[in-house]
Structure formats: C-alpha cells, structure tokens
Amino acid sequence: MIFTKTPYRISFFGGGTDYPTWYLKHGGEVLSTTIDKYCYLSCRHLPPFFNIKHRVVWSHIETVSQISEILHPAVREGLRYLGFDDAVGLEIHHQGDLPARTGMGSSSSFAVGLIKALTALKGQMIGKHDLAMKAIELEQKILKDNVGSQDQVAAAHGGFNRIHFHTSGDIQVEPIILPTQRLAALEANLMMVYTGASRIASEIAGQIIASLEEKERVLNQMRLLTEKAVSILSSSQDLDGFGALLDENWMLKRSLTQTISNTRIDKIYTKAKNAGALGGKLLGAGGAGFMVFYVPKAKRPAVREALDNYLMVPFKFEHEGSSIIFYNPQECDQYGEACESTDPPRMSAAG
Fold first, then answer.
1. Is 38 inside any structural domain?
2. How many domains does the chain have?
C-alpha cells in the first residue's frame, strides 16, 4: 500500500512563458510557491478475491476488467506509460483538499502524485526532477493536454521557487532563499478567495497557446516582472511593491485572451482593490476558480468584508513537494506475487 501527498501551487508571475511552444524559442521563467493544500492518492495491488481487475475511485467509482476500460485518462494512460498491464489488479483512490479545474494546478498534482505512487509500487524511487519530467511527458505528449510545464515542476519539488525554462528544453529550479520573517510577512499579506466556479483549463490554455507569438511583447513584459518580483523579495524593499507588481501582471495577463477574465472576475478584483488590496490575480489559465490578493495587514478586514459573499481560504507555504506518507512493502508485494503465481494466494495472519 502506498499513499502520496502532493501539494497544489500558487503561481505569481511568468505564467504563459512555461508553455513549450513559447520557451523552446524564447525561454521563460515563473515565480511560484506550493501551499498546504494537497492531492492525496493511495495505490495498492487489488486483492484477488473480487470479480473485477481494477478499481479506481475519484469523482466516479470505476470497476473494470482491463486498464483500457478505465475512464480517467491520466490513470489509464499513466498505467500504460509506466508499464503496468492486466496481470495484476490495482486499486487507486484519489482525494483532494481543493476542487478540480480551479487554477491550482490540480491536474498536474494528480499526475505527479500518481507517477510517484505507481513508481513506488514497483519498488522504485524517483527523484524530483525525473518525477516532474515524467508528469510533463504524460500530460503534454501522451494525454496531449494544453498545459504548461510549471505545475508539474512545482508539485514535484515543492517550495517557493523561480523556475527557469530554457530553449534547450532544460528546466532549472532555483529556490527563493529569504529570511524566515520576510517569508512569513509575505505569506501574511496574501489572501486567497474561491470564486465558486470551475472551468476546463485546457480550452482556455489552447486559446492562449494559439496567440503566444502575437503576444510576444506582453509575455516579455511578464517575464521582466518575474525578475522585478524576485529583486523586491531578495532586498530590503517594502513588500508592498510585490503587490503592485501583481496588479501590473494581472493587467498584462488578462490581455492575452478575452477568456482569461470576465465580468464576474473583474467585479471581484475591483471590490478587493477598492477595499485595500494592492494587486492580485486569477490563478491558472483563467475564467474561474481561485484568486489571490496581496493585502496589507491593516486592510485585511476591509477586503474580507468586501468579499463576504465568497469563501476565504486560509493557507500556508509548504516546502516538501510530492511525498510518500505511507509505504507498506509487504502489502505492495503479497498480492502482486500471488496474482502472478499459480499457487493459492497467501494471506496474512490477520486475514
């Protein structure tokens, strides 16, 4: 039995420059952090006492006889990608702290957690970089989803990072090293709001990807803001400058395509700013989901009151990335061996 815990992320600056269509020509960089909201996955060999082969539990409960019958695309193709077949039954359960399709990188956290769990089920360890690259390959090349490369890297590595995307295809993770008090001050000045809606990110991302070359000036400006944000964080400058940059970044991002924002999102943003937020952004590809705002401590009550119809989501930064929180090698092995053997299945004393 394997349990993995994989964090969701907040992306502050550079979103859009992490699409391979862009960074393989121009390079890119993103400033993001993972937070203490997680995707949990459990994985084990299904005991051979049932009239099914595989069981997958997510928003549906799937009981199938073959991997090819699994509806969840990431599970089905992830199993094939990692060399699993129908010789041994599998059971996979998913739970998440936040809803899917809300801009928190949930699909990539799922892919990262799944690959980590299935690799461990094979009795193998995988490093953070390889984990991220396999998740990128699964989502971009096998599933052919319109996703960038930042979410998989953030989920695998964890922490507050500046992620560099090179024209060679190499990806470099540079941790943001800050004094504890300064990092805590930034964390205290951030507020996250759930707008109460979800969207299919891949559809919006497809529109963004199609217009990347036309928006070269905008994307280059967004990349420069990443550098400015890092400069503010790593200096003694007032952190409020970080909030002002978020505002500038949001104005640039929403110009990439008309579907990134809408009347509802604009109203929420305006209410927050009028109440004292210095800046913010909608997380993810756009359209709906979670928004994050930079709000000086003295203005937090006013912003909370202005957005009292929406759910405020408390969070902390996290620094571990995807991890295995439970591993029982005997449970992993016994049914796998039993299913592959012609002998009767071996049962534990408890069984």
1. yes
2. 1
Helix (H, G, I), strand (E, B) or coil at 47: coil
Q: Is 25 domain-assigned?
A: yes
Degrees (nearest 5) of the Cα angle 151, 128, 314? Answer: 50
More confident position, 70 or 146: 70
Q: Is the predicted pLDDT of residue 30 greater than 90, yes or no? A: yes
Q: Which tokens sit at 351?
A: 């069984």
How far apart (Å, rounded) are the C-alpha atoms in residues 295 and 276? 7
Q: What is the pLDDT of residues 192-239, one digit of tens each?
A: 999 887 655 555 555 556 666 668 888 999 999 999 999 999 999 999
- The angle subtended at Cα 275 by Cα 272 and Cα 281, nearest 5°, is 20
Record the tokens describing residue 51, joined without a space.
């009239």
Q: What is the pTM of this model?
A: 0.91
What does the alpha-carbon distance between residue 264 and residue 273 come to, in Å, rounded to a whole number? 14
In a domain? residue 318: yes
Q: Range of 140's domain?
A: 2-324
CB atoms within 10 A of CB 188: 13
Do 15 and 134 contact (CB within 8 A), yes or no? no
Question: What count of other Cβ atoms lies within 10 Å of the Cβ of residue 268?
Answer: 21
The closest alpha carbon to 102, from 22, 13, 196, belongs to 196
Three-state secondary structure call for residue 333: helix
Would residue 264 count as lying in a domain? Answer: yes
User: What is the greatest pairwise CA distance in the chain?
Assistant: 72
pLDDT of residue 213: 63
**Which CATH number fits the domain that encloses residue 30?**
3.30.230.120
> In DSSP terms, which residues pair with 35 in a beta bridge?
317
Neighbours of 251 (CB within 10 A): 13
Q: Dihedral sign, CA of 15, 19, 25, 31?
A: positive
Give, in order, the Cα–Cα distances in Å from 57 to each of 97, 194, 217, 262, 291. Answer: 15, 25, 44, 34, 29
- Helix/strand/coil percentages in the chain, nearest 5: 40, 25, 35
C-alpha–C-alpha distance, residues 139 and 17, integer Å: 17
Q: 229: which 2 tokens?
A: 């944000």
